[in-house]
Amino acid sequence: MTAGVELALAVGAVAAAAVVQGGTGAGFGLISAPLLALIDRSFVPGPVLALTVVICGVGAWREREALVVRDLRGAAVASVPGMVVGVWALSALDATPIALVTGVVIGAAVIAAWCGVRIPATPAALSCAGGLSGFLGTLIAAPGPPVSLVYRPPAAPRLRANLSAYFAVTSVVALALLAATGRFGRADAVHAAVLLPAGLAGAAIGGRLGSRLTGRTVGQAVLGVAFASAVVVTAKAVAA
User: Fold this and answer.
1) What pLDDT sits at residue 124?
2) How far apart are CA 36 and CA 13, in angstroms?
3) Which parts pass through the membrane (predicted)?
4) Mean pLDDT score, 16-33
């Protein structure tokens, strides 16, 4: 595969992921990270997290009137120790079995949600989801599933605004930890900068589409994205 083909595929993956993120408030890391890892491992986790900061930050600003900081404040705080463990796991553990278990657990949780099982969005549940989200964010650049499965308010703007803000803020912390341990540098920043225009264009398209969606539709879309990500992560782990 030539460098030009790899870049074109990466641009397409980022744009598609940003469309979903802009419309639902989740999905950027879930979609882009597994696809970019298949194209070139150097795209993850650092460049994806850097893109997440900008794209989700733009989404949160666009929906700022619906933002309720207290909704995911506890999850954000709990994500920090999860990130620390994730950074340690990057160097100390084999990522393949971790990815396999993660994919299976997320897939099972989505199926349970589709069957009517719902995890109450209590402070404890959101904190647990935040911790797991932080771990997955630094390990595989896909922090979305845990928090997305627990936090599902009925109003679509509130869902998009708070998830976008959560992913933007926690990705900043994750990037800082990666940089402090030498896992995010100039080359990662260049990769992110090259792909950023495609991400912003996709986010703009997704934002326009999202304004036409109901809360239920957005919630189901988030579940669908989480399940698709679980399938991709599991398949990749099995094939490794």
Assistant:
1) 94
2) 7
3) 38-60, 72-91, 97-117, 124-143, 163-182, 189-209, 221-239
4) 86
